[in-house]
Design a protein that fits this description.
The longest helix is centred in the middle third of the chain and has 17 residues. The protein has 2 domains: 168 residues, Rossmann fold; 97 residues, 3-Layer(aba) Sandwich (Rossmann fold). By secondary structure, the protein is of the alpha/beta class. It is an enzyme of class 2 (transferase).
């Protein structure tokens, strides 16, 4: 029996950085989520949310799905909707990269742009209003337990297997917080000593894929008790490390990945003989129209 595209979501490579870490007894490993079919870590929760909602009877093929997104979830949901026969409406701030919009459109999604001044908060408000008006169903990546479940069942077990259980520190940029929540839950069940490090932007920094939410917009799936510590990174640090990943390690990634690497290096500077895994959320080709690689 031949496989379909959805069978290739997950099982992404875990690779060791050789040049950027410098002289150290630590091992720094990058989980290459850009290798998923639609190009990001969000392929996992997108497929998970649609499949589980369908299994529960909340949705059925032919329905219209609505989601507020900053990019990667929208692309992943567009792919999953195309696979499974749903109409997809995505609500997103107008200032996000043109490559992301084009990818969503390529999968057949309808895009509604919101004012950049309102950010993702405004996009979320508009999506909820559309749902209330009966224009579609919101899967809600910020509240759906099927988001972190995808990482509990997939991402974390893969990391555990590929490190032979030797992982000591897990570093993840925080957006919806699905990745860090699902992985933290799994690792806590395997070895409580694993330190879970979340990455957020410094005040005034705008890093695609990394957010620090106002209290009333904090994702409902987020449990602060599962995070050992939070490291703040600047936009300059994130962009610099994104360029270095490409030029020194051959890993062409997005800016949130550079932020996660910056945090991983800060952790590494404090340790000896550690195994540090960080998430490379997506590919760099989604940011070519920005100034990151100039």
């Amino acid at each position: 029996m031949f496989k379909t595209i959805e069978n290739f979501v997950g099982r992404t490579p875990l690779v060791e950085l050789k040049r950027i870490p410098g002289e150290t007894s630590n091992t720094i490993l990058a989980k290459l989520e850009g290798n998923n079919p639609a190009g990001s870590v969000k392929d996992r929760p997108a497929l998970s949310m649609i499949k589980h909602a369908q299994k529960r009877g909340d949705i059925q093929p032919g329905d219209t799905l609505i989601e507020a997104t900053s990019g990667n979830t929208g692309i992943a949901l567009s792919m999953a909707a195309a696979i499974m026969g749903y109409r997809m409406i995505l609500v997103m701030p107008e200032n996000l990269s043109i490559e992301r919009r084009q990818a969503m459109s390529a999968f057949g999604a309808e895009i509604i742009l919101t004012p950049k001044e309102g950010g993702m908060e405004k996009a979320r408000d508009i999506a909820e209003k559309m749902c209330e008006e009966g224009k579609g169903v919101i899967l809600d990546q910020f509240a759906s337990p099927d988001n972190p479940l995808a990482h509990y069942e997939g991402t974390a077990p893969e990391i555990w297997r590929d490190t032979d259980g030797k992982i000591t520190h897990f570093v993840s940029s925080m957006g919806t917080t699905g990745t860090i929540m699902g992985c933290a839950r799994y690792f806590s069940e395997k070895k409580s000593a694993i330190e879970i490090i979340g990455v957020q932007p410094e005040e005034g920094s705008q890093i695609p894929g990394i957010r620090k939410w106002p209290a009333n917009y904090l994702p409902k799936i987020y449990d602060p008790k599962r995070v050992s510590r939070i490291i703040l990174v600047s936009q300059h640090e994130a962009e610099t490390m994104t360029r270095r990943l490409a030029r020194e390690e051959g890993i062409f990634a997005g800016v949130s990945s550079g932020g996660a690497l910056a945090a991983a290096l800060k952790v590494s500077a404090e340790l000896d003989n550690a195994v540090i895994v960080f998430i490379v959320c997506d590919r760099g080709d989604r940011y070519l129209s920005t100034s990151v690689f100039n």
